[in-house]
């Protein structure tokens, strides 16, 4: 993805991200401390709710939809916090702006990859519909077409999406961005940077899990160490451990996918295929009817789950994009934009 209006902005290394919490410099007033605590308590609660009681629910499309919804709410929450802090863009350190633009363009890239994969997986629904339609006839000729459609479906869903080739490098850059700039003499800036740290940790976690699920590779799974002094640290560590361990166990079991609904449909297909291999025996008719019913239900559940998740990913994409637009407008209004290319409105992404 390329944006001519976004000049190259390298990541910066700022050392200890929690140097800003040291007693030196500006201290937090009761109001600022209350704003920060409220934000972090809300984040901790989201992390706890995201940690499923039943590990088998991990990487169901329902769980992934909730994870993306939590990410959307958290990004919306940081916008609200910035407003409550009454921290005008003219007071933003240039390094903060550099980091924000760099992170946001990478998030837009990874959203496009997620949307591409969700669309690709949902295309397989058409093949399953062909299977169901042909199975209604119960003729040998139709069974040949059913086998062909099932073969095509298996080949389609097991193929690799090239958009995920650069996913790990994007994730590594996002991890590098977790380091926070050193804040001097700005209590509001300290609150913003600490809150932003929580937003970025959740963002890296969700994107890492999604990338692992969609790419079919645990190499995209990241394990982050967060300081245990943070209010939401324990909730995050519990979530990360449960989710990452479950995903790695699933991959080690030899399954081609960790997506629960997709794996369920694949199991039905594996059961159905031998029944239509050499024609039906009388005793297999009822078993076939049951498998067809299971396939119809599973295919519909998979398609709906993919649709809902695609909509949630699109919501997140728009939140990130609108945030970039808002910052650019504020920079132009304050006269802080010196690069004419940076002052151009951000439009839809170029794929």
TrEMBL record:
This is Protein BPS1, chloroplastic. Coiled coil: none annotated. It is found in: Membrane. Belongs to the ROH1 family. GO terms for cellular component: membrane. Keywords: Membrane, Transmembrane, Transmembrane helix. It comes from the Eukaryota. The keyword Ribosomal protein does not apply. It is a single-pass membrane protein.
């Amino acid at each position: 993805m390329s944006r001519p209006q976004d000049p190259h902005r390298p990541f910066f290394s700022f050392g200890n991200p929690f140097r800003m919490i040291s007693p030196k410099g500006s201290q937090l007033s009761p109001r600022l401390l209350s704003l920060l605590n409220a934000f972090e308590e809300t984040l901790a609660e989201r992390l706890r709710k995201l940690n499923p009681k039943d590990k088998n629910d991990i990487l169901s499309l329902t769980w992934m939809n909730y994870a993306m919804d939590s990410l959307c709410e958290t990004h919306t929450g940081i916008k609200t916090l910035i407003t409550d802090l009454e921290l005008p863009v003219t007071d933003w350190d240039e390094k903060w702006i550099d980091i924000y633009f760099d992170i946001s363009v990478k998030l837009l890239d990874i959203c496009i990859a997620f949307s591409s994969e969700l669309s690709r997986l949902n295309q397989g629904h058409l093949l399953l519909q062909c299977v169901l339609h042909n199975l209604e006839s119960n003729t040998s000729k139709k069974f040949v077409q059913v086998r062909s459609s099932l073969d095509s479906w298996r080949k389609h869903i097991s193929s690799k999406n090239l958009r995920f080739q650069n996913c790990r490098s994007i994730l590594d850059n996002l991890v590098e961005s977790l380091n926070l700039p050193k804040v001097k003499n700005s209590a509001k800036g300290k609150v913003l940077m600490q809150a932003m740290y929580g937003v970025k940790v959740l963002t890296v976690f969700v994107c890492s899990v999604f990338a692992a699920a969609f790419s079919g590779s645990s190499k995209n799974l990241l394990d982050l160490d967060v300081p245990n002094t943070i209010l939401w640290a324990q909730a995050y560590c519990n979530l990360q451990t449960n989710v990452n361990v479950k995903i790695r166990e699933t991959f080690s079991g030899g399954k081609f996918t960790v997506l629960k609904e997709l794996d369920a449909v694949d199991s039905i297909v594996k059961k159905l295929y031998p029944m239509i291999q050499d024609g039906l025996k009388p005793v297999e008719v009822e078993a076939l009817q049951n498998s067809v019913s299971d396939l119809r239900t599973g295919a519909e559940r998979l398609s709906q789950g993919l649709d809902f998740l695609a909509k949630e990913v699109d919501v997140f994409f728009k939140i990130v994009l609108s945030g970039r637009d808002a910052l650019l407008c504020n920079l132009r209004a304050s006269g802080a934009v010196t690069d004419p290319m940076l002052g151009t409105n951000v439009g839809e992404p170029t794929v």
